[in-house]
Specification:
Helix content is 46%, strand content 20%. The protein has 155 residues and is α+β, with helices and mostly antiparallel strands. The radius of gyration is 38 Å and the shape is elongated.
Length: 155
């Protein structure tokens, strides 16, 4: 029989409370267990002594018999000095996913294109005649409007 040292959830909705139990690995999370060796209340402050209560003698006994602690229970055991937890290293954890990398490349290409366009616009000679040519047609309809108003007043 494979033994597991794990958390069994109790409490109400949105108010979790866990028992640290020894159970058959095949039994359901909140199902039948062999022995309760402690409690864990995640709602309490991290420095509170009531947050994790654990019978270290019983934990050592069950570890010697072959019970396998879950990762969370192993963290508790490591803090209490019952069993050493090896530090894990996952260098790919902070690395962005494939699609995020593609989006970053697209953004970089767009930024580069915008910089090149701005540089090209700054390097191009400024032509003074083009804005003056645009202003002249804008004034012509303004001159025609008073003439149309005069014709309407004559009629």
């Amino acid at each position: 029989m494979a033994l597991s040292m794990r958390l069994s959830r109790g409490g109400s909705k949105k108010r979790p409370y866990y028992r640290i139990v020894i159970a058959d690995a095949r039994s359901p999370r909140d199902g039948k267990f062999i022995e309760k060796i402690g409690t864990y209340n995640p709602l309490l402050a991290k420095d509170s002594p009531e947050r994790v209560k654990l019978d270290t003698e019983r934990a050592k006994h069950w570890l010697s018999v072959g019970a396998q602690p879950t990762d969370r229970v192993l963290r508790f055991l490591d803090v209490l000095g019952v069993k050493e937890r090896a530090a894990r290293n996952n260098p790919k954890k902070a690395e962005p996913g494939e699609k995020a990398k593609e989006r970053a490349e697209e953004r970089a290409e767009k930024a580069k294109a915008a910089e090149e366009a701005a540089a090209a616009a700054a390097a191009a000679p400024v032509v003074e005649e083009a804005p003056a040519a645009e202003e002249a047609p804008a004034e012509a309809p303004a001159e025609e409007a008073p003439a149309a108003a005069e014709e309407a007043s004559e009629a």
